C-alpha cells in the first residue's frame, strides 16, 4: 500500500478544522457565560504585531481548501480579504471549508503530484511542485494558524486542552 498525497493532506485538514469548529463554539459559549464581548476574542492577538484571532481562523481555511484550489489553478495567491467579523461568520467559513474538503475526491489530489505550482504575491513568486507546495508551504501554515487559534483562546482563559486542538483522531478500522 502506498501513502498518497490525499492521505497526507485532506484527512488532517478535516480533523483539525473540525476541532477549530469546536473551539469556535467553545469560545462563543465562554463569551456568553462570562459576559465577555465577542470582539474581545475575535480581535485578540498574542502580540501587538500578530494578526488577530479571526485572521488565524480564516487562515486555516485558506491553507487547506484554499491551497487545494490554488493547486487546481496552478497558482496560489494569499487571501487578503478581511476575516469574518463575528462567531457566526467564522463558523460558517469553517463549515463551508469542511463541506468543500469532504467533497474532494482522493484521485484528484493524488493526480496533482508533479504538477507545476506557483505561489504569487505581487511581483514576487516561488515555484513548487504541487506536493511540495501542499506539504512544505501550506500545511505548515495551516498548523501554525490552527495552533495560534488555540493559543489565543488559552491565553484568554478559555478552559480548553490539547484534545480540543487535536480533535477526533483517525483510528484503525476494525476488520
Key terms for this structure?
single chain, globular, 175 residues, three-stranded mixed β-sheet, mainly alpha, 8 helices
Q: Largest sheet, described in full?
A: 3 strands, mixed
How many strand segments?
3
> Could you tell me how far the N terminus lies from the C terminus, measured between alpha carbons in angstroms?
17 Å
- Count of helix runs: 8
Give me the strand/helix succession.
HHHHEHHEEHH
Shape category: globular
Question: How much β-strand is present in the residues?
Answer: 5-15%
Low-confidence stretches: none
State the secondary-structure class. mainly alpha
Order of strands, main sheet, comes to 1-2-3
Overall residue-averaged pLDDT value? 96
> Approximately how much helix is present in the residues?
55-70%
Rg of Cα set: 17 Å
Explain what this protein looks like in three dimensions.
The structure is a single chain. By secondary structure, this protein is mainly alpha-helical. It contains 8 helices and 3 strands. Strands 1-2-3 form a 3-stranded mixed beta sheet. α1 (5-34) runs antiparallel to α5 (87-102) and α3 (53-62) runs parallel beside α5 (87-102). The two termini are 17 Å apart.
Amino acid at each position: 500500500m502506498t501513502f498518497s498525497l490525499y492521505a497526507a493532506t485532506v484527512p488532517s485538514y478535516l480533523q483539525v478544522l473540525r476541532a477549530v469548529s469546536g473551539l469556535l463554539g467553545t469560545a462563543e459559549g465562554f463569551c456568553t457565560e462570562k459576559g465577555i464581548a465577542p470582539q474581545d476574542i475575535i480581535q485578540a492577538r498574542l502580540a501587538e504585531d500578530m494578526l488577530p484571532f479571526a485572521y488565524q481562523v480564516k487562515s486555516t481555511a485558506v491553507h487547506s481548501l484554499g491551497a487545494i484550489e490554488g493547486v487546481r489553478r496552478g497558482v496560489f495567491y494569499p487571501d487578503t480579504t478581511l476575516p469574518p467579523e463575528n462567531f457566526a461568520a467564522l463558523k460558517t467559513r469553517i463549515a463551508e471549508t469542511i463541506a468543500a474538503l469532504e467533497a474532494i475526491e482522493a484521485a484528484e489530489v493524488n493526480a496533482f503530484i508533479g504538477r507545476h505550482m506557483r505561489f504569487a504575491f505581487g511581483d514576487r513568486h516561488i515555484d513548487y511542485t504541487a506536493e511540495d507546495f501542499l506539504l512544505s508551504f501550506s500545511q505548515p501554515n495551516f498548523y501554525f494558524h490552527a495552533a495560534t487559534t488555540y493559543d489565543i483562546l488559552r491565553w484568554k482563559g478559555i478552559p480548553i486542552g490539547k484534545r480540543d486542538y487535536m480533535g477526533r483522531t483517525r483510528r484503525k478500522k476494525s476488520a
